Amino acid sequence: MRAATETRQRGTGRRELTYCFGPFRLIPSRQLLLLNGRPVKLGGRAFELLQLLVQRCGELVSKTELMAAAWPGTFLHDSNLKVNMWSLRRSLGDTQIEPVYIATVARRGYKFIAEVQISMGEVDDDLALAEPVPSSSPPLLRGIVGRESEIDEITGLLTSNRHVTLAGAGGIGKTTVALAVAQAFAPQCRDGVCFVDLATISDPTLFGAALLTALGIRGNPDNSLAAAIDYLRPRQMLVILDNCEHVLPATTIFAGRFMAEASPSRLLATSREPLGTATEHVVRLGSLVSPKPGHALTADQAIRFPAVQLFVSRAAEWADYQFVDDDCEAVAAICHSLDGLPLAIELAAAQIGRFNPRQLVELLDQNLGFRVPAADGAPPRHETLMATIDWSFRLLSQREARLFGLLSVFSEAFEVEDAVFVAEAAGLTPVDVVTGLGSLVAKSLLSAQAHGASLRYRLLDSTCRYAGDRRRADPACDQALGRHAQRVLTLFEQSEEEWKWREPADWTQRYLGRIADLRAALSWAFGAHGDPVLGIRLTVAAITLWSETSILSEAQARLAHALALAKTIPCDDLSKTKLACALGWSLFYARKMSNENEIAWLDAILFAKRAGNIEYQQRALVGFGFYLLQIGEVPRATTYLEEATGLADRDRDLTATSEADRALAWARAFAGDLNKSRPVLDRLAATYSLAEGRSRKDANEVYRFITVRFNLPFVAWMQGQAEYAARLASDAVDAADRSGHWVSQSNAFGLAALPVALETGNLDGLASYTERLRRNLERERISRWVPVERYFSACLRELRGDPLAVEDIRAAIDELTECRFLMRIGSYLAVLARAYLTQGRIAEARQAITRAIEHQERQGERWCRAELQRVDAAILLHTGEPLRAEKRLQRALAEARAIGALTFQLRIATDLAAHWSTTGRKSKAIRLLSPIYGEFTEGFETPDLLAAKRLLERLRPTAQGRGDHHGMAPVHARDA
């Protein structure tokens, strides 16, 4: 619900045969159902059923005809028809006792009863292209019975209370009520609703990962709870923590921290017991009201009680049950005996197909012993639910019972193929599984939901726990957890292949939805009774998902564990290479560049060479080269990157060659070799374009279009092309924005857009980019960019006249140094020195520029040497040492010319010319500055060129009288 499905409405429309009923439009030729113009997700079977019913509107369509339409040539139990019909009704919102669209004709079939209009309507070509459903989407809301007052109460409480906990026994309907509250409260949530299903995790340490995944926060936050709090602080969002009881300490800690912040967001928790925080508002959810025993009621009177209404609606849904006066006493007794627990009532109602209400009363008395009260006069509700589930379980056939237990291995929704794979080891055939799934859904022990062209199934929390107990007690199910892990491995190895061709958004939606089962399989594989070899393979297979979704913190822990284990047991070198490479990249975005990162890359290089895999050798060398550049070891990085580019001579088809070329060009730019760097970057920039398609190839093309624009703008700026540099950086930012590449966009901000905006004096751009980077860091928590954002934000404040900003600049630089993110640290320190100088703090300016020069020389970053010497000269002038300052400027100018940095030449020449003008050397000043200024073809509104122009204008009137004037027309030496 947090990010509502959006439908693209581009392009042209076509006239199609359309069936209209209520707010719906059915277009058979497109296999499309629209609700108010938006696509409705329907399983393929459900669509065939709906199409047949609508086409024969008002007629009885038999079960046989419906089965033939949905499963041609296949014999299946009619429970499968009921499952799909139930899913169809839910999609239509037709779950009430009196149907609006589809009526059941007892024991015969179904009839479409709404008015249908047939027309040739125009349908947009792109309507079927819907955005993926967010990972935090809650389950579909079933028809709610008898909870109106509680829903209204809780919705009202959330208006004035930031934390409400809905407490009650298992099966009482907490999740259903919470979802209804979310639906009612959603208009007050500017930023939507986030549903966190904690039933999908069994390990409390995974609470943070589950929360971040649901919120859509990616990256590598040092503290997942802090990252979630930071994300929620400015937002107006409702967070639902569902099924908290088994991870209660973690949820309590989060709730406490959440309430300590002043945020407009709200927290709604469901739990069998309160979380126990001081500010928690607890609402105890009671049973559904049922008639008291001994009261003679008619059917019309009894149906007014919510418990009876729920029983009758579910029995009618599954067994075509008709409620009559003679059944009132028995149904009332059933509801009363089951303590009004909704799930227990549904389980009992599901048996109406086999037993009538009176028989059910007898069975409940015999099997559950409800007539024997506990000490307080009634059995605890949780025991009532467990007894009811146990009774329902004992009514299953042997195959159904075994399948029910086996399904407990799944942490989230699963498909029939998953169940078939797991059940095979327990002796169940595919027919057993397909038939059994339909039967379990019909008995309310399993839920089903349309997912694309198929159905996905899921055990509810209470039934899943019971099923798990049954699985562990059945020797035939001993291999279930291993089979589950093997199935997850198969899925994620398949995901690696599909990544190459499947549309990125579709791929992400498909496999991110299996992350809970991935976590469970890894926990089992690396556990005491698991399979570590399978666990290593599964970790390797999951790399693509973690990388594609930027779930870096979780990936780091999993990869480090798997790699350490792989070094101690038999494991092939290529798998170890993949683990080490992935670990290196995940650590690359950590807050601190640790030695662990270097070890990972060196391991990757070693294992790739031992495996004889040139592709991964190149990838590892490039990754290590990027790491070395980040920590300021430019010469060493250049060595490894030259080796990486050299591998292309052995294999021209290496996919990492362009990255190797880019990385080496970047390293050479840092080393001051701009003339070798620029042609390579220009070639790469011209090679990749903004592809318009949605394929993986197109996505990779866009990614490379973006990444080369991390590096080229700064080189172009140094060479005197400020406007071109700014345009390149903006192109990278915008392309990443359109593609949803938030990590890439943060890189574009930090490496290109922000430095260029600062150096060109574009304060509006600097303000916009820092704000956008801040927002990015909320959703993609890349820790290394946090101090970078602080640095540029402080620079902006300093340029706007805030005298206190200089201390924040210093603090950000100190943090960057402490984190070993040393790339460009010399230039950052030069900015700090200039800021100190502006305030007259000469000693601190001297200290800062000394540190800057030390870093520059030690790191081999020759590109900024001339600029540091210029700032050093400015400090010397302020301290009354003009001769030393002039010599420093002349050396700086020679250095800038040597590397071809035209912008630095202009800055230095402007300072030197200004100094000469004050010492009677105006003609010399003009001869120095005018030719350099004349080389520029753009950027005339930047502070550097404006300063040079103003100085020349001041110098020329005097020089003109002595015949020293030179024309102002620029020499167009470079075509931008």
Could you describe the 3D structure shown?
The strands form five sheets. A five-stranded antiparallel β-sheet has the order 4-3-2-1-8, with helices on one face. The chain has a five-stranded parallel β-sheet with strand order 10-12-13-9-14, with helices on both faces. A three-stranded antiparallel β-sheet has the order 5-7-6. The chain has 976 residues and is α/β, with parallel strands linked by helices. It has 42 helices and 17 strands. Helices cover 59% and strands 8% of the residues. The two termini are 48 Å apart. Helix 24 (573-588) runs antiparallel to helix 25 (595-611) and helix 27 packs antiparallel against helix 28.
What order do the helices and strands come in, and which of them pair?
Layout: E1 13-21, E2 24-27, E3 32-35, E4 38-39, H1 44-55, E5 60-62, H2 63-70, H3 79-92, E6 102-105, E7 109-112, E8 117-124, H4 148-160, E9 163-167, H5 174-185, E10 193-197, H6 207-215, E11 218-219, H7 224-232, E12 238-242, H8 248-260, E13 266-271, E14 281-284, H9 299-302, H10 306-319, H11 328-337, H12 342-349, H13 357-368, H14 381-394, H15 398-406, H16 416-424, H17 430-442, E15 447-451, E16 454-458, H18 461-473, H19 480-498, H20 504-512, H21 515-525, H22 532-549, H23 552-566, H24 573-588, H25 595-611, H26 614-630, H27 634-646, H28 657-670, H29 674-687, H30 696-718, H31 722-739, H32 742-759, H33 763-779, E17 780-781, H34 785-799, H35 805-818, H36 825-838, H37 842-859, H38 865-878, H39 882-899, H40 902-918, H41 922-934, H42 943-961
Parallel strand pairs: 9-13, 9-14, 10-12, 11-17, 12-13
Antiparallel strand pairs: 1-2, 1-8, 2-3, 3-4, 5-7, 6-7, 15-16
Helix pairs in contact: 1-2, 1-3, 3-17, 4-5, 6-7, 10-11, 10-12, 11-13, 12-14, 15-17, 15-18, 16-17, 16-19, 19-21, 19-22, 21-22, 22-23, 22-24, 23-24, 24-25, 24-26, 25-26, 26-27, 26-28, 27-28, 28-29, 28-30, 29-30, 30-31, 30-32, 31-32, 32-33, 32-34, 33-34, 34-35, 35-36, 36-37, 36-38, 37-38, 38-39, ...
